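User: I'm curious what two different proteins look like when written out as structure tokens. Can you demonstrate?

Assistant: Sure. I'll show them one after the other, since each token string lines up with its own sequence. Here's the first protein:
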Amino acid sequence: MTWNLFHGRDFPPDPALFTLRSRLWRHAEDNGVHLQVNRSLLRQFTDTIAQARWDTCLLQEVPPPWTQPLAARSGAHAYRTLTSRNQLRPLTGVLGRFNPDLIGSWEGGSNVILVRPPWRPVPGSFRSLLLNPLRERGLRGERRRMSFVGIESDSRAGPIFVANLHASAGERLQAERELTRAAETAIAWAGAAPLVLGGDFNLRPRSSPALFQELQRRFGLCWPTAPDGIDHLLARGLAPAQPPEPWPAPGREIELPWREGVRRIKLSDHAPIVATFAAPPPMLY
């Protein structure tokens, strides 16, 4: 599974619920069906992730302090890579917990890989890569990193590797460079072993057809989610028993008792993407 957590915030389908008084004064807005709540949703996100079916989960835009609660609730090993806007995290983290919508992404960000039984991380396999050096970011760009780890189980003789990234937003050519760099490096690190490269690419196959064709032709990375999707799980050396597809919207909606009734909270502005891959026959790599 891959999911961009939107810094742990909710994203109701009704734009009218995004109000100035909610953003400034943490006033919950209600349209009779959905709420927009400006408060920490750590429990709601961790419960949703823990209850989902996955062996490995790739997360982006994760508030850095959430790593251990996510791992504990899911019974998983966790690997965190800090990304952008963490310079003032002792201060912005406190503000983010108090008023998530006001501080937004300035709370600080991270990418997280979760691995849970029957799979386990390969000892010493965790690595990370800076995708956009400072000279490429200039004055406006944010630091983007890829994280990478091997996983294994008793049923396989060799490992499978997974890589997680969140590419730059709003700059298609820069995101294409970052994704190419991530693919080149992940393939080199994985060697001949199977690989899943996933995350929020901020790239649509419909808008960048040449790049996705190159990923398949040059690296064997196949099965993007959809022509207009930006969250993907590409795989090499694995067959899709269930191709990547997004959760339906109700899957990330949480019911909340509210006054004399029930309202719904929609988690994140991204849908989780899930896929099932069938491993090839065991081999020694």
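Here's a second, unrelated protein for contrast:
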Amino acid sequence: MTTIASPDDFAATDPVEVAMTRRRILHAAGALGAGVLLSGLAVDRAVAATTKKAKKKAAGACVPIVSETGGPFPGDGTNGVNVLTEKGIVRRDIRPSFGSLTGVAGGVPLTINLTLRRTASSCAAYPNAAVYIWHCDAIGQYSLYSIETENYLRGVQVADSKGVVSFLTSFPGAYPGRWPHVHFEVYEDLASATSGRNAIKTSQLALPEATCKAVYAGPGYDGSAANLVATPLARDGQFRDGWATQMPSVSGDTTKGFSTNLVVNV
């Protein structure tokens, strides 16, 4: 019996190699006769088994994190409102709204730890860089846009001497058409973190499938389990070209919360 890897293993970064691998797999399937039929998803999963080494290699190398879109709800002045200029945006716990707003985002606690490295300096630590993160709430809505009266789940932190920033937030839900993710922008320093136009890197974290399933099996995440299945990671519009540099390690559980760690080479 042929073992097919899960989409989490798919980490190809070379589109040419992916295409060649797909061709080899399809050719092999044809040689087995009419009794074997591989669907598009099965082919993608078979490709995953041949590209698992690429994920491990990227994790240990000085490979820049992939750039991604900030999406339609950045709140950084590039699409409407700019929360980066508001007093209170620099904070570790981004679950409550700030300023005159009082809402608090519910959901399973999630700590996001990012370690920033400079590729121009052989991936040495990147102290004093600023990071702005934002994501949807447990039901897939974004503050300042879908929920205009709240500004929660948005915040800025400054990297310490080791290049580390840490945020306390709530695990995001899965909404139609996207794999569960967290947006972030990296800035040279806090002084420049006043507009998305100043960001030196914009990317996204791809949250691991097993963790998402565990969270979405609990209360407060209506619809997320179905949305997760409907848009597999390998077919997500942002991550389908590879997520080796964007998938964090995760520890914890749904009772005490989860903690993620990712090295971000800028």
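A detail about the second structure: The first strand starts at residue 109 and ends at 118.
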